[in-house]
Amino acid sequence: MTHGYTGQILRVDLTSGRMVTEEPPENFYRQYFGGEGFIGYFLLTELPSGVEALDPQNRLIFAAGPLTGVPVGGCGRHSIGGKSPLTGGFGETEAGGYWGAELKQAGFDAIIVEGRAEEPVYLFIQDGQAQLRDARHLWGMKTLECQNAIREELGDHGIKVAQIGPAGENLVRFACVANDLDAFAGRTGMGAVMGSKNLKAVACRGHQRLSLADPPAVAAIARWVRNNTPLANKAMRELGTANVIRGLNRHGGLPTCNFQMGSFDGVDKISGQAMRDTILVRRRSCYACPVQCKREVKVDEPFTVDPRYGGPEYETIAALGSNCGIDDLKVIAKANELTAAYGLDSISCGAAIAFAMECFEHGLLTPRDTGGLDLRFGNGLAMLEMVQRIGLRQGLGTLLAEGVARAARKIGHGAEEFALHIKGQEIPMHEPRWKQGMGIGYAVSPTGADHCHNMHDSAFTHLGPDLEDMKTLGILEPLPANDLSLAKVRLLIYRSLWMHFLNCAVGCYFVMVYGGVGFQRIADLVRSVTGWNTSVFDLMKVGERAANLARVFNLRQGLTPQDDNMPQRFFIPHTSGPIQGVALDYEAFQKAKEIYYDMMGWPSGKPSVGKLGELGIDWAAPLMEA
Amino acid sequence: MTHGYTGQILRVDLTSGRMVTEEPPENFYRQYFGGEGFIGYFLLTELPSGVEALDPQNRLIFAAGPLTGVPVGGCGRHSIGGKSPLTGGFGETEAGGYWGAELKQAGFDAIIVEGRAEEPVYLFIQDGQAQLRDARHLWGMKTLECQNAIREELGDHGIKVAQIGPAGENLVRFACVANDLDAFAGRTGMGAVMGSKNLKAVACRGHQRLSLADPPAVAAIARWVRNNTPLANKAMRELGTANVIRGLNRHGGLPTCNFQMGSFDGVDKISGQAMRDTILVRRRSCYACPVQCKREVKVDEPFTVDPRYGGPEYETIAALGSNCGIDDLKVIAKANELTAAYGLDSISCGAAIAFAMECFEHGLLTPRDTGGLDLRFGNGLAMLEMVQRIGLRQGLGTLLAEGVARAARKIGHGAEEFALHIKGQEIPMHEPRWKQGMGIGYAVSPTGADHCHNMHDSAFTHLGPDLEDMKTLGILEPLPANDLSLAKVRLLIYRSLWMHFLNCAVGCYFVMVYGGVGFQRIADLVRSVTGWNTSVFDLMKVGERAANLARVFNLRQGLTPQDDNMPQRFFIPHTSGPIQGVALDYEAFQKAKEIYYDMMGWPSGKPSVGKLGELGIDWAAPLMEA
Predict the structure, then answer these.
(1) pLDDT class for B317, splitting at 50, 70, 90?
(2) Which of A27, A90, A228, B269 is the most exposed place for a label (fewest CB within 10 A)?
(3) What pLDDT does residue B513 have?
């Protein structure tokens, strides 16, 4: 079965305004696939070491994958990457929504942006054509206004817009790239990179049908996904990603008050159930997806929350809710609207505010610093105010817009203790004292603390269908969440490699992993779409290749294995709650990290030439030196 | 899909006569699978270091696999293993025929034999029952007589017999275990181990139907195999494995006169075509196989060759033909009959005679040593005489029965130069100066020089369907045979791991690999048979696990990475013929070996704890010390 799967990549030099189209050979697609794989390849081959993230030389890469836009649930994602202004290393983040599918239907697999426009511009791509357009009138707009304005001036309300809000314009280091108002390439600060290039938006419109190698086979898988994943993801559908809140809280895994606690008194007020019963007005989905885990919420008083921005996900509820000690769902919904409107990563934003709250409670920040705000845990209105100040870089927001690592260094006096980050990126809302495998995953993730390049211990521990599917990889037994055995490190690696693959594909974890689609059916889907003889083995190697490219990029940019670390807080046991007394054991953590390197073929934390050769990327070996 | 695939393993202690049956849990089967995997597991967990191969404590393990006996072409194989009297390390060898399927139908997956019977015995297994029977009257018999005698005395001509001939009784270090008269577990001297235990034969009769998880799916694959593999293997079917002879000769890859040359003047007289046109009377097959690559030949004059012993395969024709400088197909056919009747590995036997011939031509052996035989290359009758003397340990045969490594040490005076072996096992009939990937494979094979734990460069280089299937593993481009790049080492490793898997399954390379069945369909077959959620990834890991167990066993028995070597001859270019001037480059060979270790996760040639942990066998790490 051969098919000749190829496509087009658009290169945009904003400095010169020059745009060219490339058509890489099919084997390039087979090896690097798309998404994270493309990003790793192009960053490594094009970006010299030492270029700053906000330098015009940095690349900003929008990359779909072979699955993006295929009419099957879970195939609505794309990836954005570049050198990260938070970590100084590999930046890569994925988003759902409809934009990625539209990019593909417009005839492109990826866009590589370099340089810096003299004045704000936006890029409009339609059916194989690209043009740069003046965006001076859009600069400063929040995302809703900007999307409306673009659709209006182009006269097409079907246009999909990926864009930065004021936060990206203001180079907030954790600014995101928003699309469709409710989907976010949230992490690693790609919004700031976009802002630094004076690129306000990328608008797409496409009418091309994706070519499929075996349409009936794709249709059969689509049918299977439609019929089965909503059932497997019943709670996800009914309650959104927030369905996990109560369970996490019960296990002590709900980050509370800047990870000082693992359970939250106000949990029932912020749960998925509470949202369903109060402010939810509609479920939303990404492209082609039957699960509909996305929310749409509406609040009328005491303030309004605009339903056009969707509704909060788990990460947002925990980051701007429990982790800030806030139990008011309306306030959290408003914060969600604001992060969407300003274009902020809700995880890092919430983490930065929680950090500031802890500093404030310890007197390291005072009302003088906060402009009079009583920035204690639990103060919802102060939190909302801080979201806006960060987005606009006003007052204390100027400092927090730098991320907690840089802010803590500036505050000094021990503020580092409260700055929970790895490599400069804030910890997402998964408690590494409970999900210890993910803890190791945080430490070694190429993107700094991140839950999208590793795994969720708890899911594997508790979910039956997932356990059965893991046997496809030879993992035969479940493991407790708070375990750091060799077997756990293996589990982490296998799941991480699969996530790296999904980030290349680009596919949705919720549908593809937790929806029970299964490793083999995904390989069948890739084969049916591309015509490639492939296998779970091949796809695991695609993921491993992407992981190694990212690792080499980080080494090239001067990151070292010493940066694969963990905030001290997580080595200190909780003093109360369900995981009272539980912490990461320092020795066990170090040992697990060594074992991780060993299993990855990374002696002393660096990919060996043999490992790179096995992955067909030994060309990258000389690039490892900073 | 779960099924509960389990079975029974029979343990036989010949010293005490005690027999017990074990039923390992399903996860044991999933991890270690069968065949080579079982052998590695049991040898490593049961055999202390330092026990001699011919010591009663050594284990002799007969192991089928999940595929053995399944009514699909290529599923007629079993494996036999123990510590090797040739190498002092991991001994393992597979055979086709019907015996493996019969063992499974008799209710057993494996037999673990230990101890030594006081008097010769044979084991009879029938439908779940096992008994040890007197074999004193069978001792000394050739294989045909012995098989007839057993069938006669048990009154059942459907009984399948695996047995040793006089060579095994006489502890010839390269004695084989023959079954069905024309199938041989040939390599690593398992016949000598069997002889040392006074075990003449294992006779099986079974009427149980194998339980299949998904019979219609198995039937569909069987149909596919029946319809397609004879076409893919057209030359194999028509000409037997000897179909390759002319091509090899053309490329300079036909071992000639103890590998002094790579092409042979008499090639057309010994080719598959010559056999078809002269002495072939019938094609034979293994259990359930539509390819029928096995031969049956008949010669009436100037001597008789008994068709009941089948006919020579490629390895036999090269080893006892071209590599001894012999171009008389009738002589080769007779030699084939004799090795079958005496129970000798035809590869090592031919190699030993070729070694002796080169010694003779250099005056290191004289007519005094040979009992007057003019043991020059090309003397067919002398060769036939030597086969018998080796089998009976008579005259010079006593010396050669020790294998070329030990014989050369005894002869001295530089005879080592002519002793082509690795770790004590003779080189099979694949020229490592041409197939350089297999050359590395020889060096690192756990069994010493062996073509059944690595790969055939040439096949991948030349065969279209195989190339397309390799893409399933992410190998996108063919590579020249005489290449030792990183990409070649990767190819070697991927193919080796798959062969290790097939040795666990136990499946036939010819059908499963060259028959175009393909990686994915084999994974589907395993799933349909066992009910296990499996994948190509999982099966590659099964192979890798087996390879690592074997490696650990070798380290435990005192073998070192220095034993992963290569006879000097192969670093010296041919002086004529198609590959004139071509040799293994010493530096490139060493570098490729280092890269192999690196890619395998074997720093300094030893599996790392992380690698063993990744394979779920970190229990083996402490066993690595001799």
Answers:
(1) very high
(2) A27
(3) 86
Does the residue A543 lie in any domain?
yes
Q: Model confidence over A357-414: pLDDT tens digits? A: 999 999 999 999 999 999 999 999 999 999 999 999 999 999 999 999 999 999 999 9
* Mean pLDDT, residues A200-214: 96
pLDDT level of residue B514 (50, 70, 90 thresholds): confident
Residue A537 to residue B535, Cβ atoms within 8 A? yes
Same domain, B475 and B542: yes
Residue A458: pLDDT band with limits 50, 70, 90? low
Domain match, B481 and B590 both: yes
| Residue B129 dihedral angles phi and psi, to the nearest 5° | -110, 145
**pLDDT at residue A482, rounded to an integer:** 84
Averaged confidence pLDDT in chain A: 95
Residue from the list B27, B520, B610 with its beta carbon closest to the beta carbon of A599: B610
Give yes or no for residue A2 having a pLDDT over 80: no
Residues B201 and B282 in one domain: no
Taking 3-state DSSP, the helix, strand and coil percentages for chain B, each rounded to the nearest 5, stand at: 45, 15, 40
Q: What is the reported pLDDT for B3?
A: 45
| Domain housing B539 | 436-624
Instruction: Using pLDDT thresholds of 50, 70 and 90, give the confidence band for residue A3.
Output: very low
Q: Is B587 found in the same domain as B560?
A: yes
* Interface with B, mutate which of A604, A614, A617 (most B CBs under 10 A): A614
B157 within domain boundaries: yes
Question: Is B279 in contact with B271 (CB distance < 8 Å)?
Answer: no
Residue found by looking up tokens 């994602």 in the block = A77
Tokens of B263: 């092409």
Q: How far is it, in rounded angstroms, from Cα A322 to Cα A254?
A: 7
Give how far A27 is from chain B: nearest CA, Å.
7
Q: Are residues B451 and B405 in the same domain?
A: no
Q: Flag if A598 and B610 touch (Cβ within 8 Å).
A: yes
Q: Please tell me whether residues B86 and B194 are part of one structural domain.
A: yes
A610 closest CB neighbour out of B31, B540, B599: B599
- Looking at residue B461, its pLDDT comes to 57
Domains contained in chain A, number:
3
CB count in 10 Å sphere of residue A368: 8
The domain that contains A133 carries what CATH number?
A: 3.60.9.10
Q: Which residues of chain A have a CB within 8 Å of the CB of B534?
A: 471-472
Tokens, residue A609: 């030439």
**Cβ A474–B31 below 8 Å, yes or no?**
yes
DSSP SS3 for B23: coil
State the Cα–Cα distance between residues B197 and A136, nearest whole angstrom.
Answer: 90
Scanning every residue of chain B, which has its alpha carbon at the shortest distance from the alpha carbon of A614? B490
Check CB contact under 8 Å for B474 and A610. Answer: no
Closest residue of chain A to B598, computed from CA coordinates: A610
Q: Is residue A522 packed enough to be buried (19+ CB in 10 Å), middle (13-18) or exposed (0-12)?
A: buried
**Cβ <8 Å between A537 and B598:** no
Does some domain include residue B229?
no
Which residue in B has a C-alpha nearest to residue A603's C-alpha? Answer: B603
Cα separation, B186 vs A302, in Å, equals 85
Both structure tokens of B579: 């590959």
The answer to whether residues B385 and B534 belong to one domain is no
In angstroms, the CA A602 to CA A327 distance is 44
Residues of A in contact with B27 (CB under 8 A): 476-477
| Nearest of B483, B442, B440 to residue B590 by alpha carbon | B440
- Residues B137, B171 within the same domain: yes
Last residue of a domain, one of B426, B457, B476: B426
Minimum CA–CA partner of B522 in chain A: A535
Q: Which residues of A touch B496 (CB under 8 A)?
A: none
Which member of A532, A603, A613 has the closest CB to residue B595?
A613
Pick B609's closest partner by Cβ from A31, A536, A598: A598
Out of B205, B220, B250, a domain closes at B205
Tell if the CB–CB gap between A486 and B519 is shorter than 8 Å.
no
In a domain, B369, yes or no: yes
Query: Which CATH number do you get for residue A529?
Result: 1.10.599.10
